[in-house]
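Researcher: We're teaching a course module on how sequence relates to structure. For the next exercise, students receive a sequence and then see the predicted structure as tokens, so they can try to spot secondary structure elements on their own. Here is the exercise chain.
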Amino acid sequence: MNTFRCEVIHRHAHTKARITRVTTPHGEFTTPVFMPVGTRAGVNNMTSLELQAAGSQIILGGNTYHMLCAPGMEVIERAGGMHPFMGWHGPMLTDSGGFQVFSLSKNKEICVIDEEGAHFTFPGSQRLIHMTPEMSIETQKIIGADIIMAFDQCTPDSGTRDEVQHIMTRTHRWLKQSVACHEAHPTSRYGATQALFGIVQGGTYEDLRCESADFVASMNTDGIAIGGETIGFDMQKTVEVVRWVRAFLPEHKPRYTMGVGMSPQDLLDVVAEGIDMFDCVAPTRNARHGALYCGTVVRDGHWLRFASDYEHARIQIKKACFADDLSPIMNDCACYTCQHYSRAYLHQLFKQKTNLFTALASIHNIHVLHDVCASMRALILDDF
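Model: And here is the predicted structure for the students to work with:
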């Protein structure tokens, strides 16, 4: 029995935004939803309880490439999968390793991509791995996430049209192989249903994006993701790509823009175009470097925007102007950090390079993105 379901429960009256309820073997989540990223089996400096308290409904827990490198699939399988291994018992998505392979392939001595998959060397060893679509899916079966991704090749923004088309065609072929492998073994190693998402490529070419979206939709995967280097990196182009492909996306399946979440405004922009799910490493990475989201979600016509007095909607806590500032990061923020600590305290922790700073900063940044999603859900319900 397939226990993965997606139900559209409300649509916004004035934009393409919507609320969906997604059911998985590890519980439900309601979109729009941001997924904190735990690439190496843990969201940086946050426990599972802290993630829940910050508002996390689903996480991206464990990247296929990184989990293969360490601790290895044998350890994950002995633990009973990624959920018990990392102590997260809610819904989880994992990615196929395609983006990491894309990054590694910039150095041909480390990784080479061919028609069959990717050949790479494990860091710090001479062990060679040939990552194929089948191996990626089988690895994700061991990880045991509720949502797994088809193996794809991420499209670089610098690619020529011929190169982009070649990558797209290869990704489509790999999707067929991923679907066949998943259909032959539809559950995780632990007997739970897993949903498979396909990934739209096509770079910055409208006709290729539409062709890719049409093909991915025809494969009848459980959800559709939109990938490529430009998604989440160039937000103006990201929104444009979503508009190009939206007509090809099935109404009753989740829509996922990969890597969106550098700024709170980015979430507002893609949801207005009909996107349901997104993930990004930026909130915890920004936190680690002292960049803390600061602003307010305000009504802007029929939709919302993240209003801020600060560049990129975040304060740089290292600046001397915060050394004596006893106010919280955001006055109206209900996160644990803002409820208990001042900018001055966080400034001091940052200057001391303490792990406590990174933990408190991560809690705040993750909470802000979840709060933005909650604001969108509330507006969609009010305008229904």
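Model: If you want an answer key for the exercise: The longest helix spans residues 355-382. The CA atoms of residues 112 and 119 lie 5 Å apart.
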